[in-house]
Amino acid sequence: xxxxxxxxxxxxxxxxxxxxxxxxxxxxxxxxxxxxxxxxxxxxxxxxxxxxxxxxxxxxxxxxxxxxxxxxxxxxxxxxxxxxxxxxxxxxxxxxxxxxxxxxxxxxxxxxxxxxxxxxxxxxxxxxxxxxxxxxxxxxxxxxxxxxxxxxxxxxxxxxxxxxxxxxxxxxxxxxxxxxxxxxxxxxxxxxxxxxxxxxxxxxxxxxxxxxxxxxxxxxxx
Length: 222
Prior knowledge:
Elements: H1 9-19, H2 24-47, H3 52-63, H4 66-99, H5 117-149, H6 155-186, H7 194-221
């Protein structure tokens, strides 16, 4: 008899859960699926005449050891975390690209002399950054769908897309903060301009949301 044969379902699930890291909801769903599979296997053994505890031990023994199972489940969690990050990044990138210029329209300083060339370059780069974010997010989503249809995944490709997306998001956050600070330095009225205030609040909330999603993916893909 193997050592794992004496383990029951709840103990095996706790062991497996302790080895997995990633989005809490997805992890909960995954563990629930494993429990359902083990419960079904144990029920079949009970129908065959085995006592409850022995049926659970047999089901667990047939299922496999956590060390063998965890890598596949962790890859699933990493894929789910990347999909969540990509969907969020794609939506936010589109919103910020479309709505970014609206914060300036009608402002008291918009008809004045043009800002420095460096400022114009930084402002113009924002659309490029968010378009890159949207492109990487879309590529990650399409890759995930393609991999799911093939019944497997290519972790190195998913990791590369995720790292590219995370890096571009960090660049976008740094550039956004720099642009806001420079705007306030150039135009005192920018700090009291309502669209600017609303835009800053919404952008801050968006970056915080993306930071959490990025951290979740990094933990799952580690």
